[in-house]
Amino acid sequence: MSLRSVLRAQTADCHAEVDMLFGTFDLSNRERYRTFLRAHARIVPAAENAIENAGILRLLPDWSERRRAPLLFADIRALGDQMPALLPPPALGCEAALWGALYVLEGSKLGGALLAKSVPDHLPSSYLAPQGSKGAMRLFMERLDASDVDDPAAAVAAARTVFDLFLKAGQLELEAVP
């Protein structure tokens, strides 16, 4: 069984929970959209930095083109807001954990592309808009499938941690909404 299949099967519950929570955000409403972006801003920069520090460039040389934190920062600034406090980054002590965290972040791009359709044209949406070189997702999936990690459980644990961080970030931002 490929690592992608293992990750998909063993994180399906987390994925569904994150989808359900973030599905409650009305992205056509400026304030709710801002709240959605702030939730992502609590985890995406920290997770991307952790992935970079764990050595992603040896696995995905096009990593710099995949980073979305700068796009997220730009959208939040365009809405006249400041970055929220970051949540602690996931611990990525091995290659398997790196793949697990990356699985969640890269997968969120697919969801983002679908969500971008809900954002009105007058709101900034570079973070959600599809980006990267053509075939970047396919390349990621091929590399994930070809990865020969010796500890798939570490990949699953890291992926579940990143999903949990997204949940926590979403809940924190929703609690702050009056």
From TrEMBL:
<dbReference type="InterPro" id="IPR016084">
    <property type="entry name" value="Haem_Oase-like_multi-hlx"/>
</dbReference>
<protein>
    <submittedName>
        <fullName>Biliverdin-producing heme oxygenase</fullName>
    </submittedName>
</protein>
